[in-house]
Amino acid sequence: MSVFVCGATGTQGGAIAKYLHEKGIKVHTITRTPLSTKSQHLRALGADVIAGDYDNEASLRSSLANCTGLFLNMVPDFQNPDIEVIRGRRLLTLAKEAGVKHVVYSSAFAVNEPHKIRTFTPTGFVGKLLLPKQALENEVRTMGFERWTIMRPGSFMTNFLAPMVYIYSGLVDKGCWVTAWTKETKIPLVDPMDIGRVGAVALTDKKFHGKEIEIAGELLTVEEMVKELVKATGRDLKAAYLTEEEIKAQAAVNPLVEAQLALRDMAQFADLEKTKEWGLDLGTFERFLKRENEKVMKTFSI
């Protein structure tokens, strides 16, 4: 078996590439930076890495040749949301032509039911994030692949590492995380390594055919996340909550605030018991912080 992996030099793609390698499955991928350290690391694991991008059909055809599996993961483009669907549909079409039989698509929480998010609008930030993925989910279901699985990961634990940590205003530089979440908000957190592990299993185990799986290791409040960060870093960290008036003023100019408002409603999509029934032992935030201790300390050192 060989698998084309989208974004194999990135967070999700790198994770699934690792687990596929451990299963003895060859990875194929394209990248704009074939000479980068991450590309060279993939080659050292036996991956086939060539120069290309998702607008270059020739590079896609070359990399997809002889692949039987596809890990699909598209990066959103908020300036041109349609491009995500165009590129994803192109890749799926070429994969079908190349004889790919198994597809795992990493989508996002709430894509199947965005109307359950109280702040959702089709033209807003969240709509631009979710609706292209909804279109690609439909493509995956209906294109006639022998097997397919849709994964919907929660909020990445790696967002608490540099450089992404700065989406959490004030957390690192001031030790006070200012957020639009409430004290009651629970966030479904996922370790991206678990996305890779589950994706690799889904590509090789037929019991995952036709399944749509929300992936989250645990649901934590802001205070619970801060508590784990304090333990991991030794720093004096705390949280401050924006008032509704402050949120209203900031949401109009700051898309991150709009995203946080949407995340207030994400816990309803998590089903941790169902995940356990699948035998998926997903990692906790505490375990993630311990494993990534070196990066955590570097991120939070001031």
UniProtKB/TrEMBL annotation:
Gene3D superfamilies, A to Z: NAD(P)-binding Rossmann-like Domain (3.40.50.720)
SUPFAM superfamilies tied to this protein: NAD(P)-binding Rossmann-fold domains
GO CC annotation, single: nucleus
Keyword Hydrolase: no
One function term, GO molecular function aspect: oxidoreductase activity
UniProt keyword annotation of Signal present: no
Family listed: Belongs to the NmrA-type oxidoreductase family.
Protein name: NAD dependent epimerase/dehydratase
Naturally occurring in which organism (per UniProt): Aspergillus eucalypticola (strain CBS 122712 / IBT 29274)
